[in-house]
């Protein structure tokens, strides 16, 4: 029995190759995590276990896909970044996005018990994630995207910290706290925290204030030496690398697998982070740290 | 600190809404399952535990998304079908695909221990799945797609059954078995099985020969009454339903949640399956079976 | 000097193949025709010369592209319809749309002098058109699209006829006429025309009331015989034809070239037009009229 | 009569907005110009009248669309370039492409008689053009695209010049000339021209060797001053300008309309052309030449 009679249906599959030489960001988000965080008793405003579990899953995704150059996570979302020169899966959008979403989900579910030992998963209410790919044509815009997420982390965390302190320590109702915070700016919230509750927001955990940055660790470079060549990368490097052969790409992947994947809670808006870790934006592996 | 400075990056997100009034098939595939089936000692040519786990995960996806009207699974792949009238997630492709992939993965990982009690998962080698959406503009073509997958199931299973019987029972090397089977047609393989090993392929398990069909169960209809109205669905029903209000859609979802999701191993190429279960192609819930 | 150094730029070209087996409508619109109609003194509310020129250009497009099965024009817009089985230019969207736009423009400019002998074109203010392709998955929806355009023609023409009669024959200012017509329904406008100006709208030219339908003429069929098989076309015919070989397609094109392209001003909302001309929706040439 | 019953068909129109902040190249090509050049007796290998007509049409397109920053033409093709900051028609692909194709076609047909006074157009065989949009994410790649076209111009022109000289002056058959040229490199062709026919290829017309570059003329800048800031444009300028308001964009358009559109036949592969005309890549109008 041949299958040729029905095989014409394959012609309905349409290509979804992403524009070459552009940054690819795959952002995933927890599905219905508001409800889910209630069900599993996540601590407000930040549950360290939940964030550590997100980071553990993200680290596994980074290890599984050496083509990824950096990831940034906050709350129940994570952004994974492929370099413009990335050729993985011929840059097919659905393949890239679903591979990340599925790998992340698998590790999140598998490691749940490690981070929530006394709160078993309750099927059918399992955590899951959706995701999508977005293209950014230049390094400047990619960095603005990363800054956008980190500023968002700060804004949300300051709000949530203040709100939940007013509720939990101040005994206010959710509605009252919400109403009082409406229209306030950062300095207002800092003042509420400090004056009423003696809390200095600056002393809050960095993971809450900055989110989590995941990348491969090489020897840090001296920012001064680096700074003069920081521009022009867009125009030169990606093109060269997009022409790299399959075997060269495999070699690069092997090199990247040797690097340790680390989780950091640092500023990624200013230049310093990027200048000291030029391998992230260049797409070229750095020097492994000496033992 | 306002975020407006960076918010322009949102303008790079591009819409991916699927053409209205067309069938949406989301097909997911196990990533690297050839290697994975070796690692976890899947039985050749078919591991009933692995298929049951696939089906269990698919059932949960069907329950989670009442907009799905049918799913078909074979080996490490599963096709999930949304009706042309589906408005879920405004028909955004990435959202539909990643939701299915992630929900499926979550349940697959979570239920692994139930189906493989003595073979624990070995991180980082966790099962994962990729996926994509394909559009089919008419019911005829959707049915041809389903037929394509089931014919493929048959072709592969007959080959694999013969191959592994030659190797496992006949003591042949993989290479020798492969060489002998090259160029053979179905009747040749049936004969090898029967004459050499006394195996009647027709007696093999239906789940292996037919794959697995997952759908909501209502009262079966008399095919004769149904047959005369089987055409014209494409032209009428979807349009009507695409205009259904949000509240009507929610009502439909509730109705669908009441139906039992069943797993069947039957022919879906001939008309009978579809004529007796008109709710699958019409997108309108049937009558719940009486208690 | 080889060109290989730069040829990588070709990899940035992305495919734009339209989903198979769906109706393709290419709608083109005059660019800035409001201003242009003032510049060239088009008669209000309808300039027969301008419409005839549009139709003449559309007929040439239909002759040039035998794959087109019907076209419908009103005012400065024209919709050209490709059958679901169309394989022209591998269904590449930009190629289909620009070919129609350019061919239409060429004939419009070339024949301008024939229809406006005393109003020469004044460069750089030349007429031009933009266009786009839209997919319709079923015959029902394609017909609804055609009905939408013809109803639009009727609504606009009744409004414009009433408005310009009030201004031109009634001596009202544009603003006053506009104000009076605001919120009126069809019967109100009919009454204004009849009571104040003795004009029976039904007696207006069909080309103004119905727009222009362009198609290949074959022997009309008896609607009664046809009616019972009018459904099901979507499911059967297109698939068969999408599998037709290149040579069969060429043969079909030759047959279609033999048919006369006619311009009609008739109702295309009711079934009769389509039932008597089954070749339009079936995509299969009819019988040539006997001499 | 309301139109609401059919208006749902509008929901089938899908967005085609091009990725922000990337170069847009719309390349148009003559349809069937090989045959057409025979029909209208174009001179081989280059017909100056045909090229001048192409250039005249391109100049009108540039004038009509001040958002275009440069265009390059060779043979029957023309590439029109929009700056990454371009917001015209909300960057809708079909709208941008069809507007250029239609405007170009209109002027080509209208001015035909000026360039071919003794060769009137023979309907229905009118010249027409197809077109498509391609995105280039960085200035480096855009320049490589332009270089690609100009190198292609050179390669084809050297071949055609040699081939037609061998046929026209050398009395060879097309087949013989083709056979002899197979596998030859540039120097071989130069030698054939020089040794056999006394033709120094360098002395051929620049328009044939270099193609035609069309742009707005401002005061040339000193390349040395410019060179140090030539990098980094990608990262900075486009983003700033994509945020420019509608009124600022209109102002820029007015400024650009004041500049003269010129046709040049010069090298655009080396840096000099671009360094002396920084307004082309910056997207910011230069200084108008003093009177």
Automatic annotation (TrEMBL), chains A, B, C, D:
Swiss-Prot/TrEMBL GO biological process terms: tRNA modification
Sequence segments annotated as region (Disordered): 224-255
Basic and acidic residues bias (residue ranges): 224-233, 240-252
Cofactor binding description: Binds 2 magnesium ions per subunit.
The enzyme's E.C. designation: 2.7.7.79
Ranges of residues in domain tRNAHis guanylyltransferase catalytic: 6-137
A Pfam family: Thg1
Residues holding GTP: 29-34, 75-76
GO molecular function: GTP binding; magnesium ion binding; tRNA guanylyltransferase activity
Domain named Thg1 C-terminal: residues: 141-270
Cofactor: Mg(2+)
Binding site for Mg(2+) 2: 29, 76
Keyword terms of this UniProt record: GTP-binding, Magnesium, Metal-binding, Nucleotide-binding, Nucleotidyltransferase, Transferase, tRNA processing
Catalytic reactions on record: a 5'-end ribonucleotide-tRNA(His) + GTP + ATP + H2O = a 5'-end phospho-guanosine-ribonucleotide-tRNA(His) + AMP + 2 diphosphate + H(+)
Binding site for Mg(2+) 1: 29-30, 76
Family: Belongs to the tRNA(His) guanylyltransferase family.
Annotated function: Adds a GMP to the 5'-end of tRNA(His) after transcription and RNase P cleavage.
Record-given protein name: tRNA(His) guanylyltransferase
UniProt source species: Aspergillus lentulus
């Amino acid at each position: 029995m041949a299958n040729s009679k029905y095989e014409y249906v394959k012609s309905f599959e349409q290509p979804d190759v992403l524009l070459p030489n552009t940054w690819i960001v795959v952002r995933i988000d927890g599905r219905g995590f508001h409800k889910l965080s209630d069900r599993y008793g996540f601590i407000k405003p930040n549950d360290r276990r939940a964030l550590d579990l997100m980071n553990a899953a993200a680290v596994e995704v980074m290890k599984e896909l050496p083509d990824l150059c950096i990831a940034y996570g906050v709350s129940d979302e994570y952004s994974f970044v492929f370099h413009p020169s990335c050729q993985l899966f011929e840059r097919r959008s659905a393949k890239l996005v679903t591979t990340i979403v599925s790998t992340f989900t698998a590790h999140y579910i598998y490691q749940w018990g490690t981070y929530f030992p006394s709160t078993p998963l309750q099927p059918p209410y399992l955590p899951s994630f959706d995701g999508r790919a977005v293209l950014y044509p230049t390094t400047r815009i990619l960095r603005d995207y990363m800054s956008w997420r980190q500023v968002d982390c700060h804004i949300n965390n300051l709000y949530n910290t203040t709100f939940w302190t007013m509720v939990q320590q101040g005994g206010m109702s959710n509605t009252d706290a919400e109403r009082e915070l409406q229209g306030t700016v950062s300095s207002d919230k800092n003042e509420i925290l400090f004056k009423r509750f003696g809390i200095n927001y600056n002393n809050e955990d960095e993971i809450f204030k900055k989110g989590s940055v995941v990348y491969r660790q090489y020897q840090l470079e001296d920012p001064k030496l680096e700074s003069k060549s920081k521009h022009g990368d867009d125009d030169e490097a990606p093109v060269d690398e997009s022409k790299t052969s399959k075997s060269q790409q495999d070699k690069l992947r092997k090199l990247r697998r040797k690097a340790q994947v680390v989780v950091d809670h640092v500023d990624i808006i200013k230049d310093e982070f990027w200048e000291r870790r030029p391998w992230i934006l260049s797409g070229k592996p750095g020097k492994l740290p000496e033992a």
